[in-house]
Amino acid sequence: METDIETYTLTHLQALESEAIHIMREVAAEFERPVLLFSGGKDSICLLRLAEKAFHPGRFPFPLLNIDTGHNFPELIDFRDRRAAELKAKLIVRTVEDAIRDGIAQPVPGETSRNRLQIPTLLAALEEFRFDCAIGGARRDEEKARAKERIFSFRDAFGQWDPKNQRPELWNIYNGRLHPGENMRVFPLSNWTEMDVWQYIAHEQLDLPTIYFTHEREVVRRDNQWLPVSDLLPLKKNETPETLRVRVRTIGDISCTGCIESEANSVQDIIDEIAAARVTERGSRADDKRSEAAMEDRKKEGYF
Amino acid sequence: MVAEAQRVDKDRVELLRFTTAGSVDDGKSTLIGRLLHDSKSIFEDQMEALQRSTDLTGGGEVNLANLTDGLRAEREQGITIDVAYRYFATPRRKFIVADTPGHVQYTRNMVTGASTANLAIILIDARKGVIEQTRRHSYLSTLLGIPHLLVCVNKMDLVDYKEEVFTAIEQDFADFGTRLQTQDITFIPVSALKGDNIVERSAHTDWYQGPTLLNHLEEVYIANDRNLVEGRLPVQYVIRPQTPEHPDFRGFAGQIASGVFHVGDEVVALPSGLASRITSLHTYEGDLETAYAPMSVAMTLADEIDISRGDMIVQKGHLPHMDSQVDAMLCWMDEQALNPARKYLLKHNTHTVRCMVRKVQHRVDIETLQYDTEATTLSLNEIGRCTLKTTVPLIFDAYSRNRQTGSFILVDEVTHRTVAAGLIQEPEVEPPSPQAEEYAI
Questions:
Q1: What pLDDT does residue B70 have?
Q2: Which B residues in the span 161-220 are in contact with A, Cβ-Cβ below 8 Å?
Q3: Is A278 within 8 Å of B12 when comparing Cβ atoms?
Q4: A23, A43, B91, B190: least surrounded by Cβ within 10 Å?
Q5: CATH 3.40.50.300 domain range(s) in chain B
């Protein structure tokens, strides 16, 4: 028997995958109208593969939703649309532009990031389609405030997260009970790290938007990071743009996503680069730099 | 080729989940901060953020505990409010750490963190030795069925790294530890603050020949932690594509709770009691010959029997219990105390039923570990043995045999809060081994 046991083990990726598939199936079984948040970013690309796996040979029983800030990298939008079409999945897009036009989201003068404006846009979309559960690709290793979030993360009727009033989560038994108007955010990748995501992408040979790999881009040095020059990022007086070989490590809006200098041309190159990295993934996001509790504050309001 | 071999190795990394228990002064957060720091899992921007935040806590020095205390209120008050999950990896293993606070909501959080752990780190302050709290942590760890205990005698620097101090604590712990069910207990003398025996072997403890903390976490043998004997598949979802390519596919999808299933195995569907044979173990990658816990699969059977979410497919010859009355240890987690007059929702694996708590048999005094048989209710953070009656029979094993099929949660029907965690006890009078026929209608 001893030798048998050795053959019945899972690698860490297999264990994480199995956990995530179990979570996907719980969502499908316990909620009336779930939706999967798909941005075209690397984490949601993994989510999509897990959804395919969880219901195979059937199709996953939920549509995809993207909250488009209008400040995205065009490569990301192309990828999002192409991937959804390949899977013949229903893709719903709601834009921050429209939310601003309709008065749902209100920009503050001087605010460059549209992170905050995504919140009311997302909440309005959930309400519009009466989605009771949104599956997201957030991971607990991303940020300290996320480290305490549940896999089934309860949101009140205002979409708010109350870190001090979370449901205890034990074993693999998830409490998905809701009152009308409340909803759940579910994070199947909670226990994954950035490295796990990349190893999974390598293992599954998942296709990615090209901006994750090295390319030439005009960038400008600001707040200790290289920001892409675009219509949305006018240069300040004393700034001079440079053209460098860069890639993105995490994708937010084009106005706040720092690029890193990199020659990484393949997923394996990226894995090697991350293994040697000295800065976290979120370290390249200007939106998280404002204060140590920036993410915590956004999450309380209903951020992803 | 060397690079190639390393790539393969990376894929072979195993997952180990552990939990830490200790009071606010035992240096638990410092210990985890030290593990992350010394295993090079802290990045420059985190270090910068830490340095920026030092003013908050008043000390001029970088406080490793700030790495784990994520919420603003926690950093300001210097306490940990809730279970926090941390991740780090070495070339051997990937670790998931459930970091639980030592004071507020103590039992609730520790039970939560312990529910999925392979190993618990118990911290003892070398100056204080085994105290009540140590017993409490150890009791909860074994109650929750954590297979491995690792006792870190911390702050060895404050007792001049004296061997006598360490061995006296080891002896003390062993004295009451013999009453604990965990077989595997390891002791390590450490200083989280100074880094002694955390990742690197300490120059101050040459009398200690055992592993460092990280060594032990990398080496401890966990393949045996799962129950691989009793095949259990709680059915989560029935996959019926009804497409031209798969007109008749009916896959019972779930995560195998325990045991090993092979194609061709005879199985019994419960509660119906109908027997059949496994025709395939389907996954996205293709069909498997063998599947085992904790894999997620979709099982197809030779016969068309009615099986839905909440049912369980089990191996013939290893049948679980089936009863609408169970005895369980309940860990109460809600501000509102247990009310025996009320009904609660009980979620067990994928099965949700209604239940009543018929009787509180006894309450465990967490301080003294004595039983109070007069108790009639349980309040927040209290633990007791209760008899529950469910509307529909549960299909279960005792928690001590099977953490997956022996556990449940109670949910308040009105507030929808998770109010208790339940650990099913072995029925006191062992019924004659149940046969499949007895379940048959």
A1: 53
A2: none
A3: no
A4: B91
A5: 9-225
Find tokens 């299933």 and name the residue.
B261
Cis peptide upstream of residue B271 (ω within 30 degrees of 0): yes
pLDDT of residue B120: 94
Q: Contact A168/B109, CB-based, under 8 Å? A: yes
Q: Which fold has domain B9-225?
A: Rossmann fold (3.40.50)
Are A58 and A239 within 8 A, CB to CB?
no
Question: Min CA distance, B318 vs chain A (Å)?
Answer: 17
Which residues lie closer than 8 Å to B374 by C-beta, 6 or more apart? none
Note if the bond before B91 is cis, omega within 30 degrees: no
pLDDT value at position B367? 74
Contacts of B362 (CB under 8 A, 6+ apart): B371, B372, B373, B375, B384, B385
What pLDDT digit, counting tens, does each position of A253-299 carry? 888 888 989 999 999 999 988 887 766 665 555 555 545 456 566 66
The minimal CB distance from A292 to the residues B52, B251, B416 is found for: B52
Numbered ranges of CATH 2.40.30.10 in chain B: 232-315, 321-424
Architecture of domain B232-315: Beta Barrel (2.40)
State the angle between helix axes of A194-204 and A12-30 in degrees (0 to 180), rounded to the nearest 10: 90
Average pLDDT value for chain B: 85
d(CA B87, CA A128): 37
Interior angle at CA A171, CA A167 and CA A176, nearest 5 = 45
Nearest to A40 by CA among A30, A51, A32, A48: A48
pLDDT tier for residue B234 given thresholds of 50, 70 and 90: very high
Q: Which residues of A touch B354 (CB under 8 A)?
A: none
* Nearest Cα residue in chain B from A284: B45
For the domain with range B321-424, which CATH number is right: 3.90.226.10, 3.40.50.980, 2.40.30.10, 3.30.360.10? Answer: 2.40.30.10
Closest chain B residue by Cα to residue A268:
B7
Which chain B residues are within 8 Å of A21, Cβ to Cβ? 255, 296
Confirm or reject contact between B354 and chain A (CB < 8 A): no
What are the C-alpha distances in Å from B319 to residues A49, B27, B305, B412?
35, 46, 18, 31
> What is the C-alpha to C-alpha distance for residues B85 and A191, in angstroms, rounded to an integer?
8
Q: Does A293 touch chain B (CB under 8 A)?
A: yes
B397 closest CA partner among B150, B200, B165, B230 = B230
For chain A, domains (ranges, CATH) are 2-197+293-301 (3.40.50.620), 208-288 (no CATH)
Q: Is the dihedral of CA A69, A72, A78, A79 positive or negative?
A: negative
Nearest to A282 by CA among A295, A269, A271: A295
In tens, the pLDDT along A85-144 reads: 999 999 999 999 888 888 888 888 877 778 888 889 999 999 999 999 999 999 998 877
CB spacing of B296 vs A203 below 8 angstroms: no
The shares of helix, strand and coil residues in chain A, as percent rounded to the nearest 5, are 40, 15, 45
Instruction: With H, G, I as helix, E, B as strand and everything else as coil, classify residue B93.
Output: strand
Helix (H, G, I), strand (E, B) or coil at B251: strand
Who has greater pLDDT, B241 or B70? B241
Asked if the C-beta of B253 comes within 8 angstroms of chain A's C-beta atoms, the answer is: yes
B433 vs B374, which has greater pLDDT? B374
CA distance A100 to chain B (A): 31
Q: Where does the pLDDT of residue B66 fall: very low under 50, low under 70, confident under 90, or very high at 90 and above?
A: low
In sequence order, what are the residues at sequence separation of 6 or more whose Cβ sits closer than 8 angstroms to the Cβ of residue B157?
A: B191, B193, B194, B196, B204
- Complex-level ipTM: 0.89
* B74 CB-near residues (< 8 Å, 6+ apart): B80, B81
Closest approach of chain A CAs to the CA of B71, in angstroms? 6
